[in-house]
Amino acid sequence: MMSKVINIQLPVYQLCTEYPEIIPIMKQLGFENITNPTMLKTAGRVMTLPNGCRMKGISLEKVIQTFENNGFTINK
Known about the structure:
mainly alpha, 51% helix
């Protein structure tokens, strides 16, 4: 099975389009607006994971660890 690779420098919208299964993971991490299609299509087109983490006060390391625990490989 091929690993799912997430490049954290890509916009969140692009990541969620490629891997829709990350949406509930991100919501659980504290990105509650991720489930709002309008927010995802607007802010999500320019927001990267590191920027979103800074904005929300969420640890990027925690996000990376959670993705890795869910079978993703993180490409920084």
